[in-house]
Amino acid sequence: MSVNKDCDANLKESIRLEAGGENWSLTRYAQVGSTNDLARDLPPWSAVCADVQTKGRGRFGRAFASGPGGLWISAVLPAGGPQGIWAGFSLRAGASLLAYLRSLGISGARLRWPNDLMCGSQKVGGLLIEQPASGILIVGFGLNICNQPWSAYPELREITTTLAEEMENPPSVMDAARGVLAALAHSHKKMLKGGMAMAIEELNPEWSTPLPVEIDLNGGGVLIGLFCGLDSEGHLKIRVPSGSDLVVEHHLVKKLRESP
């Protein structure tokens, strides 16, 4: 069966909705491979969500558990303008999505660099931003609501959580979709207004307490130290055991792990 026919068979609804001051076109499927892949051919202010993803992916192509009960959504945003204006948009989107989680009453929500939404030490959501063609950005976002990611991957039991575990009355999947789309629309407006610098200004107070981390570097090697936020260019400020402060360019970081 072709991809299009497969999607047609799984189509649940296509709706228009207002969120964040934008008029979105949202298509919902029962099951797809990847919502990001389906979003590639859609115009700006379109979104795709699915009850289940069979080929959900995170950064570096890692598998992303996407079972029933969670929100698996990809939004298409316009990305025109001067070259480089969208650099660091993952930080901007992360900051806006963090604000959305806190609006639900989750006081322990935080952002782990670069794009993991956390509740305490456990992951509740993650971003994957792609720019497949000039003029658009695809923002993929997965949010654990009432799903159980550890049912497919038992090793996730200790490191992931869900909104259902963090709050008494979690939003429905579609209510969460509206909230997420509103947050992304706001992030788009804020990026046009203040760029990455505004996002860094918002996030650095969140990272004011140095956090022990281990950083896998591209090209090999591990750096151990305290994560102390970002500099004005979005590079990581790391305090090493000797007490010296280093700036680690973000493109040199393969993976950041928080130490116990």
In short:
The chain is α+β, with helices and mostly antiparallel strands and 260 residues long.
Give an overview of the whole structure.
The structure is a single chain. This protein has 260 residues and is of the alpha+beta class. The chain has 2 domains: 3-205, 2-Layer Sandwich (BirA Bifunctional Protein, domain 2), CATH 3.30.930.10; 209-258, SH3 type barrels. The model has no long low-confidence stretch (mean pLDDT 91). It is built from 5 helices and 13 strands. Strand 5 and strand 6 form a beta hairpin. The protein is globular and about 60 Å long. The strands form 2 sheets. An 8-stranded mixed beta sheet has the order 1-2-3-4-8-7-6-5. Strands 12-11-10-9-13 form a 5-stranded antiparallel beta sheet, with no helix packed on it.
Descriptive terms for the model:
8-stranded mixed sheet, globular, 5-stranded antiparallel sheet, SH3 type barrels, 2 domains, 13 strands, single chain
Task: Note the beta-strand portion.
Answer: 35-45%
**What's the alpha carbon Rg, rounded to whole Å?**
18 Å
Residue-averaged pLDDT, rounded? 91
Q: Which superfamily, in CATH terms, is the homologous superfamily of the largest domain? A: Bira Bifunctional Protein, Domain 2
Task: Provide the succession of SSEs.
Answer: HEEHEEHEEEEHHEEEEE
Low-confidence stretches: none
How would the blueprint of this fold be written?
Elements: H1 3-10, E1 11-19, E2 22-32, H2 35-39, E3 46-53, E4 71-79, H3 89-103, E5 109-112, E6 116-119, E7 122-130, E8 135-143, H4 163-166, H5 173-203, E9 211-217, E10 222-230, E11 236-239, E12 245-248, E13 253-258
Parallel strand pairs: 2-3
Antiparallel strand pairs: 1-2, 3-4, 4-8, 5-6, 6-7, 7-8, 9-10, 9-13, 10-11, 11-12
Helix pairs in contact: 3-5
